[in-house]
Structure formats: structure tokens, C-alpha cells
Amino acid sequence: MAQEEIAEKVNDNRPNLLKSAGLIVIVILLSKIAGFLRDIVVANYYGASLVSDAYFYAYQIPALAIVILGGMGGPFHSATVSVFSKIIKNFNIKPELNVKKLFNTYETFSILIFGAIALICFFFPTQVMNIIISQASPELTMLAAQHLKIMSPVILVGALLGLYYGILVTYNHYLLPNIAPSMLSFGIILTLFFSKGDDTGFYLAIGTTIGALLQMLLQTPFVIKLGYTFKPCFDFFNNKNFKDILELLMPAFLSSTIGQIGIYVDIFFASSLAEGQWTAYGYANRIFQFPVGLMLSALLVPLFPLFSRLVVQEKFDEVRHYFNKGVGSLIFVGAYLMIFIFISRVDLISLALERGAFSHSATLMVSEVLFFISLSIIPYMFRDSITRLYYSFNDSKTPFYIAIGSIFLKLIFNSLLVGPMGINGIALSTTIITLINGTILAILIRKKISIGYRAFLSQIIKIVIAAAIAFLIGDFVNIILEKVLLDSFILKIVKVAIVFGASLLAYIISSYILKIEYMQDVKEKLVNKFIKRKKDAV
Length: 538
Fold this sequence. Notes:
This protein is mostly helical and 538 residues long.
């Protein structure tokens, strides 16, 4: 079937994914801005210091629950969407008894497991942190343990958020789940305003817990409105649908946990480095996640439920069409994003964070880490996208096995790179492993579906060429402006804007000349939209 026929058929029978993606982009952008403001406030109060290191070390365990497990694309969200989207017969009425029973079984299971983990972190925080940062000083370990104790409720909240997020997305409610994460940022910002010169970071940990609770409280009424109220149900062994969830959830959960173990491996190596280096890694990673997470969420949130339904219906041509178009568009945008970060990262970090306790030396430290992390933008986007395709085939075991292998690779690459490169070695190690993972997943998916890599790779090569041209032009403009402009806040904004415009224009022109498919799609959409508006005006 021709690609044009597939697109026409899909557009006739499916929701307007472009419209959904556009709405999600706006909502997630607002949430990312809230997170950006949070980082500015936290950097202003604590800089890159012992206190910030302690918080970010301790936060890794709550983050596993609220961001990795319960967030967009996490195993709780993915398992919920995959199973519930197949058993709900009518999305316009209240759920049937078997659906509600599955929801209650799932929620009871989550409360028992993650409630127990939260209690362990509350009563034994020092022992937990001694395991995670065994090479750290006693002062750092004790401070991190106190932070962990304060944030322990977040572990339970995160598991419930993943379930609620999945239910809302299954019903095509994309707005609220993507607004809710901003509550975490607002909780931290508001709490810090009352900290009165806190030099322990306890207010930062308290704000994190308050923000997570607000995030759950925001989503709960809407889940109840859909017809899902909680009643304890312990039907763990006889409920076939719950077994289906576990078959998908457990390997995906272990895969995510394995990924987090990779972070703990990084923490082990980082805890012996100079003060503030782990904080620098954290800020660089969040700057990286700002645009990358935005793009992945915008595309994968509406596409993942669709993939699951199309796979069940065995409409593999449509799956292939959406995957190639979606991932190709991500890489097309991500390639430009990568070269812009390479050129302007120091100015961007300085404009965003360099104030209060955050010094220029901290800016340079973050910018170096960001360079090595940004090398992973394209493989990161591809890996996360193709992982969702595995989940659509109810296969979370393959990503899990590959994630296990990544732990051993992490140990090897960190051992080789951290000594000569410090925290930058951890960043480069992460990039190399992301590339390896994406490549292996790309090869193994061919057992399930033919993606058509030859045509896809030809477009990627053209994108790389266009990005290289844009980098050379943008970097040349950046060097010239550094010589003629003074180092002031306003002029830095002007400089970044000019570099952005020059490099983007070069990228667009190069893409057009090279006839990159995704550039042609954008052009056609804009032209058609302009013609439609002109006709409406007439």
C-alpha cells in the first residue's frame, strides 16, 4: 500500500494526531517552563554545592517513582495504556465492572509494593544512602539521608501517578496529565520562598514532597469522574487482565529500575569527585530534557495508544507509516537542536542560571557536561520511540535484557572515562550506551515488523549533512559576535537570538536543497494552511 493511501486512510479513521501533538506541546512547554523556573530558583539558593549535591543524590530514589516509573512513557503509564485501551469497549460510558475491578487490583498492588519501599526509606534513610553514595563524606551522606527521609512519601505517590496518567491518556485526555507535573515545580518554588536562608536544603526536600502530593490531588478528581474509584481488591492471582498487566509491567519495571541502577552506578563514581560536580550533571541533564522531553511527549503520548490498537488489528502498514514519519520528524528537529546547543550552550546556561550562589565556574562546568550529553539527542529519541513500539507488541522483555547489558557497559565505560574526564566521562559514557541500545533495538525489532530502514537512513544522512552545514555557519556567526559584542545580559540574548536565526535559516535552506522528506512535509502543511486561510478570508 502506498504511503499516501495509508496516510489518507488513517486520517479518515483516526483522531487528528497532529492537533493532539500541538496541544500537548503547548501544555508540556508550560510544564517545562515551570521546571525551568524551579531550576533557576534552586540554583540561586544553593548553586553547585554540598547541599545541592546531597539533595540531588537523595532525590534519585523518589525520582525513580515519580519521573521514571510514573512519568510519561514509564512502565506504569505504558502498561496501563496498553492493557486498558484493549479491554475498554466504549470510552463514552462508565467503565464496566471487570475494568473497574482491574483498576482497583492494580492500585492495591501499587500501594502495597511502593508503600513498603517508602517506609524503608523513611525509617532507614542513612543505610540506604550509605549504599548509594558509599564513597561520599560522612557529612554529605548524613545530609542526603535527611533529605531522603523527607521525600520518602513521593515514592508511593509516583506509582499512583503512573496509573492515573495511563487511565487519562487511554481516554484521550492529554491536557491534565501533562499539566500536573508542573505542580512539583510550583511546590518547590513556593516552599523555598519561605525558607528564610535555609542552608541545609530541607525546605527543598519538603517542597518536593508537597509538589508531588499536589500533582496527585490534581489528577484524582478527574480519574474519579471517569468512573474509577478506589476499593481495595486483592485479586492478584485470578484476574487474567491483571496478569496481562504484570507480564508487561514487571519486565518494563525491571528495565526502568535497571536504568536507574545505571544512574546509581554514575552516582557511585561521581560521589568521589569534587563538590558540585553531580549537581552540574543534574542541571545539564535537565537542560537536555527540556526540549527533548517536550518533543518525545508531544509525539509519543498520542501515538503509543494508537500503536497498541493498530498492532491488535494487525494493521502493520499503518504502524510502519506512523513510526517512520514520527521518528523521522523527531530526528529532523533534534539534529538542529543538538547543533544549536553545541554553539550557544555557555550563553544559554549563563542567562538561565548564573546568579546568586551559581557562579561562572559552575556555568562552565555545566556547559561541558551538556556538550557530551547532547551528543545523545538523536540516539536517545530513536531508542525511546522504538521502545514504545516493543511495548505495543506486548514485548517489554527485549528492552529489559538490553538494559541489563547496559549496566555492565556502564561499569566498563565509567571506569575508563571518569578518571581522565571526571563528570564529563559519565556524560560521554551515557551517550555511548544510548547509541548502542538504540542500535540493538533497531536490529531486533525486525523480527516483529519491517521498518524499512534503507529509505529511513537515507533521510537521516541528509539530516546530518544539513545539520553540519548549519553548525559551521552558526558557529562562524557566534565567533564574530563574541568579538564585537560586550559581555552583558541583554547583548547575550541578542547574540543567542542572532545565532539561532542564522543557524536555523541555514538548516532550513540546506534541508530544502537536499530534499529532506520531513522538510517537504512541513512546507506542504504550511502552504496548505495558508491557502485554506486565504479561501476562508475570501
